Each structure stands twice: as structure tokens, then as C-alpha cells.
């Protein structure tokens, strides 16, 4: 997927949690991200609530923050727990922006 930025075609990217990320750090990422962006997709009944685990929900929040902050590599660092991907991580009813 590509998008236009200043008239140039740029590969769309998303930010997700690294598979080996520490659960405590993922909890911190969720807390930080939800203080900056709307986290309703991971609320009970939200489109990204399932699966109800830290790596899935942190990935949603980290990406919401990453996109809102401008999508720079530094916006996906999260203390070394973030990973930028060009593969859309959307699944089921959970659609990543």
C-alpha cells in the first residue's frame, strides 16, 4: 500500500510491538499511548479488543500513536519495543489506520 506525501508516493508503514517485547513494557506503552490517542478500539467490545493480550493491544495503541505523531521511526521506538512494518497488521474486525 502506498500513500502520497507532498506529491510523492511513499510506502505505507505501521508500528507494532516486537514479538519478544517484555509484558511490563507493553503495559507501559499502552498507558503512554492511551494518554495521547483515543484507545477505544481496545476497550471491551471495541474492534481490536480481541485477542485480549498485551502484545495485540499494545500493537494497536503503538500504531495509533505512531500514525498520529507523524510516522517517523522515532515515533515507533517505545524503548526499543516497537517494530515498523510495511505489511498491514489488520485482522478480522481490527483495521489498522
From TrEMBL:
Pfam families: X8
Record domain X8: where: 13-96
Keyword Signal: yes
Gene3D superfamilies, sorted: 1.20.58.1040
Keywords, sorted A to Z: Disulfide bond, Signal
Tree of life domain: Eukaryota
Stored SMART domains: X8
InterPro entries to which the protein is assigned, alphabetical: X8, X8_dom_prot
Keyword Cell cycle: no
GO CC annotation: plasmodesma
PANTHER family: BETA-1,3 GLUCANASE, CARBOHYDRATE-BINDING X8 DOMAIN SUPERFAMILY PROTEIN
Protein name: Carbohydrate-binding X8 domain superfamily protein
Native source organism of the sequence: Rhynchospora pubera
Amino acid at each position: 500500500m502506498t500513500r502520497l506525501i507532498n506529491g510523492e508516493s511513499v510506502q505505507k508503514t505501521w508500528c507494532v510491538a516486537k514479538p519478544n517485547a517484555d509484558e511490563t513494557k507493553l503495559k507501559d506503552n499502552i498507558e503512554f499511548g492511551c494518554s495521547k490517542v483515543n484507545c477505544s478500539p481496545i476497550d471491551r467490545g471495541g474492534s481490536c479488543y480481541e485477542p485480549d493480550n498485551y502484545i495485540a493491544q499494545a500493537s494497536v495503541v503503538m500504531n495509533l500513536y505512531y500514525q498520529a505523531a507523524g510516522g517517523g521511526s522515532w515515533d515507533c521506538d517505545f524503548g526499543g519495543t516497537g517494530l515498523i512494518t510495511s505489511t498491514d497488521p489488520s485482522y478480522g474486525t481490527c483495521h489498522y489506520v
